[in-house]
Amino acid sequence: MYRLLVVDDEFEIRNGLCKFFPWNEIGFDVVGQAENGKAALDFIYRNSVDVILCDVAMPVMTGLDLARELNSSKCKYRIVFLSGYKDFEFAQKALEYGAKNYILKSTNYNELIRVFSKVKAELDEEGSHKKTNEKKANKSETEMNFNEKIISVIKSYVESNFREVTLEDLTNQVHMNPDYISKFFKQKTGQNFSDYLIEVRMKKAAELLDDIRYKTYEISDMVGYSNSFNFTRTFKNYYGMSPREYRNKKSGRQ
Questions:
Q1: What is the pLDDT of residue 91?
Q2: Which of 39, 46, 50, 104 matches a 20 to 30 Å C-alpha distance to 70?
Q3: Which helix (H) or strand (E) holds 121?
Q4: Rounded CA gap, 208 and 202, in Å?
Q5: Rounded CA gap, 145 and 163, in Å?
Q6: What confidence score (pLDDT) does residue 28 get?
């Protein structure tokens, strides 16, 4: 059911529309009524409303003034104007302020049915699009959270097992084959897995170089390089200096 507010300064018309028209049969629930635009505005700001059936000419605040106020506040409401005036200028203004239809008070029962059935169909379509977009957003967020979790598992495992870790080792952690792990990691982080492993190893090597108890060849083995020449070359490519130069610079020696 869509929530409908009926606004008209003539009590008989307002009351008759609220009580005797079969709104529920066409998908609307009358949640309130107001005698002018100001009273309607107060009601709208306090209550949830989807559609407004509103007279044009009313004291205190006209229907057009109400529509202009709602339009300027960027509030999205369906407004159907009801008037006894066969005035093209009123109709133009109504459309300008976002009215969906302009109905004469002398209109018949079938015309009201037609207009509000159309309004309901439009609201249904909007609701369907909104639900579809929400589902897509939720699915996207779920996938993002899942992907982030996998990347976190991979990085955590590498940081704890950087000395000997391989892509094959990670298959038991994330249940993917090695080739897919490599592609997945690159796709989600923008970094090759091999480059990330080097990054972790080199940062750990730099930490170890701060401790003068360790020789360079020992650090090489500690971070996964059995060949110290390969370690030195990789370290220099990463930091722009050899392990010895790095240690001397950190200790203040040239």
A1: 65
A2: 104
A3: helix 109-160
A4: 10
A5: 29
A6: 96
Helix and strand numbers (H, E) in the chain are 11, 5
Residue 187 near residue 195 (C-beta atoms within 8 A): no
Stretches in the chain below the pLDDT threshold 50: none
CB atoms inside a 10 Å sphere around CB 198 = 18
Angle subtended at Cα 69 by Cα 66 and Cα 74, rounded to the nearest 5 degrees: 125
CA nearest neighbour of 71 among 46, 89, 44, 48? 44
Per-residue model confidence (pLDDT) at position 104: 79
Q: What is the pTM of this model?
A: 0.61
Instruction: Report the amino acid identity of residue 93.
Output: K
Query: Counting beta carbons within 10 angstroms of the beta carbon of residue 254, is it exposed (0 to 12), middle (13 to 18) or buried (19 or more)?
Result: exposed
> What is the C-alpha separation between 85 and 100, in angstroms, rounded?
17
